[in-house]
Amino acid sequence: MSKYILSDRPFRKEFDEKIAEIDSDYRFVLEDELVNDANWQNVEITIGWKKHWKDKLLYEGTPLKWVQSISAGVDYLPLDEFANYNVKLSNSSGVHAQAIADHLLAILFMQNRGLFSAIQNQRHAKWEVNGDDYAFMQDLRVLIVGTGKIGQRLASYLDFFNSKPIGINTNGREIEHFKETYSLSELDKQASKADVVINILPLTEDTYHLYNTEFFKNMKTTATFINVGRGPSVSTTDLYQALQEHEIAFAAIDVFEQEPLPADHPLWQLENILITPHISGFTPHFQKKFMKIFLNNLSSFIKEGKIIENEVSLTSGY
After folding, report:
1. What share of the chain is helix, strand, coil (3-state, %, to 5)?
2. Domain containing 208 — which CATH number?
3. Domain span including residue 295
């Protein structure tokens, strides 16, 4: 009897063949192939997750053993129930690292060469130069909140440009390419000295609305805030107020509490924000990068029952 790997999206046929090479008992399937309850009882692994799968796959004695998340963040998944039914979880941390780091570097260059101001001026046929819009990368104190694979890739870029990447993580442990690292408890102190604050943290109880009115008031009025982590880490209302009242100079936001951001939201009317529609993680050759992680894990899982890369703690959520 076949064991199913249920995916929330199709993958190229070459990866079906690679799964068969690892173990021919496993078969890659999409949901529309599971025509009855008996088929669902063959699902041992999923790639991705859909909310309605919960009723089919999470119960006492479930055959489901492992969920491989498509994303790095897993806050949207039923972690407590995975734990209750002994379902392992891994994420795709690292797959999007280059794409998001490239996105962030593009923002930093545009911001510090006055290109955002130039775009706004062009809309009004205004020939204007503001000397305050310009800075050298090497003079910036960039605070990267989250020193995982994305943060490390960005820090390596900034290190190359002789900038000063400063890292925030749970305990302040040293990380390659960061000039300094501090614990999350020192976030406010370090943010008050930063020219740029970049959030790349996962969403947890501790990071929900971490960035709020108090935080923005603590930042330099000349500073930039960027979020490519999770939308609910930022209070949208407080961010709008901080930008409107120029408590911070600029923001670049790729993820929001509500997506899509409503067309009538006042953030759209501000000129000191870049709004992007959750695109920072768009990754060329995604299937190849993702499957490299999944197939390595699959081989180990079948042979030893272990996940060797990116296993997620169901308690902490990362």
Report:
1. 40, 20, 45
2. 3.40.50.720
3. 3-94+284-304
Residues 125 and 238 in one domain: yes
Q: Identify whether the C-beta of residue 272 lies closer than 8 Å to the C-beta of residue 250.
A: yes
Q: What is the pLDDT of residue 133?
A: 83
Neighbour tally for 317: CB within 10 Å:
19
Max Cα distance, the chain (Å): 71
- Would you tell me the crossing angle of helices 149-160 and 97-112 to the nearest 10 degrees? 40
221 and 192 in one domain?
yes
Q: What's residue 2's pLDDT?
A: 87
- Asked whether residue 43 falls in the same domain as residue 110, the answer is no
Give the pLDDT score at 257: 97
- Residue 220 counted as domain residue: yes
Beta-strand pair 3-7/43-47: parallel
1 pLDDT exceeds 70? no
Report d(CA 101, CA 282) in Å as an integer. 11
- Is residue 266 located within the same domain as residue 295? no
- The SS3 assignment for 221 reads coil
- Kind and range of the H or E run holding 44: strand 43-47
pLDDT tens column, 241-272: 999 999 999 999 999 999 999 999 999 999 99
Q: pLDDT tens digit string along 30-57?
A: 999 999 989 999 999 999 999 999 999 9
Q: What is the pLDDT of residues 184-213, one digit of tens each?
A: 999 999 999 999 999 999 999 999 999 999
pTM of the model: 0.92
Q: HEC profile for 253-306?
A: ECCCCCCCCCCCCHHHHCCCEEECCCCCCCCCCHHHHHHHHHHHHHHHHHHHCC
Q: Are residues 121 and 259 in the same domain?
A: yes
148 and 230, same structural domain?
yes
Whether 224 and 252 have beta carbons less than 8 Å apart is answered as: yes
Q: Is residue 160 part of a domain?
A: yes
